[in-house]
Model the fold of this input.
Amino acid sequence: MTFNLTNLRKDASDIFQSGILAADPYQAVKQELSAQDAKLIIQHQASKEWQKIHLIAVGKAACSMAKAAQEIIPPQLLSSHSLAITNTENAFSIENTTVLSAGHPLPDQRGLTAANQVYKIAQQAKENELVLILLSGGGSALLPYPAGNISLEEKITITDLLLSSGATINELNCVRKHLSRLKGGQLAKLTAPAELHTLILSDVLGDDLSTIASGPTVPDPSSFSDAKTILEKYSLWEKAASSIKQHLEDGIKLITEETPKKNAAFFRQTSYRLISSNIISLNAITSHAKNLDYTTEVYSTALTGEAKIVAEDWVLFIKQKLSQPTSAPLAFVAGGETTVTIQGSGLGGRNQEMALAFAIAAEKHHLNAEWVFLSGGTDGRDGPTDAAGGIVDTQTFSRLLAAGIEPETYLANNNSYYALKESQDLLVTGATGTNVADLQILLIQPNL
Done:
């Protein structure tokens, strides 16, 4: 096979798609649930006869997960109040299920309305009934239910500030949990005395269940004090609304009850299982690259940090690798979730910023090879844009200059979307119906 630039770009896109397919939420749920003699059977769980099953799916993969569950759960057991709550791009109709669209990455009134419905269903669940939660990434934004006297607008503002500050997903969700009535194990508390089982699709590196969708059904190890420390770390404490500061201070003083911890009695009636994650997709793209005859190496299983810095570090790593003569086509793959500290007024996302920064760094450090670099979100949406990320190559920098774009200026202004649009390097997949964080693929044909 000839590994020219056109083939490299096609291979990178195909490899990325293999990672998305590996995280198919519909198939993941199908593998976990079955039915026999009008009973629902959950893999790795003792068989039980529940009088009723309440189905609630929340996240970017909610519709696919709910559809799979609906096809398996015996109809006579299913509650008439089944819910699937997802972002607009991933919403589709499901038989006998109410599908609600809500805002992401920032919460909105639709999400608050949906959260109210979840709250009511959880409270109405009775002993000898099952609440089956299907959880995927995006659930934190899609299910806002502010605690205390905090308004939705105030919660939206602090979420936006945290997203713009470069806070990690763990930090962001720690704050969210302590400003919520559902997150951080509080949904599990509401469902008692019913039993609760959660199937989880992870978008969090390391698969920390208390962080995925802010862990509404699992114990929360974080505290009100942690949440305040995070706001102070990013100089946001003084910018927070007085209601938010008061609520966190009341929690620190034990005036407001902490989020549920692992010793809470009601957690004895709960169980959960991780059914898909970033590492599964990373393994899939590794295998696919090898099948395409690339000498393949995993660059990172947990790629984190400031996107533009991570990109330059990767270029320097590759330059060192290429100092050893080789003629074999190479593939370096990674999974993770970087961050962007917004300092400009442009449009983009962490994957687009990483792709643009990689093209700039490759030019700066004279990366001597034919290469293609793809960075994309498995959900098909990178930041507040219609792109999943970016796919850049050896000629991207030249295309940018030819289009009158000064790459470094656009990067400094966090304007990666418009830069990559001009160079025809946006990665556009549409909503994928899944969400297991990000994947990166670097393909190289060394110059002989």
User: Anything to note?
Assistant: Residues 24-145+180-222+259-276 form a domain with the Rossmann fold fold (CATH 3.40.50.10180). The CA atoms of residues 38 and 220 lie 35 Å apart. The longest strand covers residues 295-303. The chain has a mean pLDDT of 95.
